[in-house]
Amino acid sequence: MLLAIWQADGAFPSGAFAFSYGIEGAVAMRPGMIPADFERLVASVLRQRWASYDRIALLRGYRAGGNLSAIAAIDREVEASTLVEALRSGSRRNGASFLAAHARLGHDLAHALRADVRAGGCLGHIAVMQGAIWSVLGLGEELAQLTSAYTVASGLITAAVRLGAIGALQGQAVLRTCLPLIERLTACETPDPTDMESFIPFLDIAAARHARADLRLFAN
Fold it and tell me: Is 22 within a domain?
C-alpha cells in the first residue's frame, strides 16, 4: 500500500505535471464550467477511457512479466489506436519521464525498457510502462489499477486547478466524489485477452484544438 501511495504521490517525478489530459482544451471550448461539470467530465474519463482502455493497457503490461517483445506489442497497439497526435505524443513523453525516474532509482526493467525505447523497439506509452514497472515493484494488480486511476483523476483535477477553472478545495471535493467510482471500476474482472476501447470525443476534439493554440500552459 505504501508503494502505491509513493507512486500516486504528485511529488513523484513522473512528468505528469506537464499534461492536462485534454482539460486545457476543454476549458477553452467550454469556459465557465462549474465543479459539477468537472465531476461529470472526470467520471466520463474514468468510465469511457481509463476503465476500458488505459486499465487494459496497464494490465496487459503488468501481465507481460517483463517480456520486452510482449510489452512492445502492447505499446504499438496503444500507438495505433490513439487517434489524436497530442495524446499519443503526450503518453509517450509521460512514459519516458516515468521510465527515467525509475531507471535513476536503479530499477533494472526500467533501464531495459528505456534502452528499448531509444532503440525503437518500444514506444513507452505511460499506461503500458506503469503496468510493466509496477509489476516488478511488487504492487498487486488491484493496487496497480487503483494507483493508475487515482493518478488520472488527480491529474485532471490538478490541471483544472492550475488553470484557475476551479478552486483547490472544489477540486478535492470532486476527487473525493470519484473515489467510489474508481473502486467499482477497479473491481471489474479483466480476463486475457481483452480489447482496448475508448470513447471520449469531447476531450479528443479539445486535445486536437489545444495542439493548435497559440498559448498553452500544458503539453496536451
Answer: no
